[in-house]
């Protein structure tokens, strides 16, 4: 019943911007912690950002100051605005939700940043 659907990935040049979206269903969105993770080939999946039901955000050091996470309760959607993108940001980006005491994941969206 829980579904997370990411969109907005693509190919951009270094220094460019993208905005990722994650539409959630099957959860009480306003009370659920949401997050973004990313995974590059051969590397561990790593936390990018989280946002609480109250809107408090937290960012991983590599993206702090460049990425901004937000949520829209009316649309049950979270966003990740990515600015000043670097080639090292290239990865599959996954939407995450903590709801009903369990972890839920989207299928991912590819972000590729060229030099």
Question: H/E order of the elements?
Answer: EEEEEEEEEEE
Give the helix tally: 0
Integer-rounded radius of gyration:
13 Å
Residue-averaged pLDDT, rounded? 96
Strand portion, in percent?
A: over 45%
User: Distance between the terminal alpha carbons, to the nearest Å?
Assistant: 40 Å
| Number of E strands | 11
- Unreliably modeled segments: none
The class by helix and strand makeup works out as mainly beta
Chain-wise SSE layout:
Elements: E1 3-7, E2 10-13, E3 18-25, E4 33-39, E5 46-51, E6 57-59, E7 67-72, E8 77-82, E9 91-99, E10 102-105, E11 109-114
Parallel strand pairs: 2-11
Antiparallel strand pairs: 1-3, 3-8, 4-5, 4-9, 5-6, 7-8, 9-10, 9-11
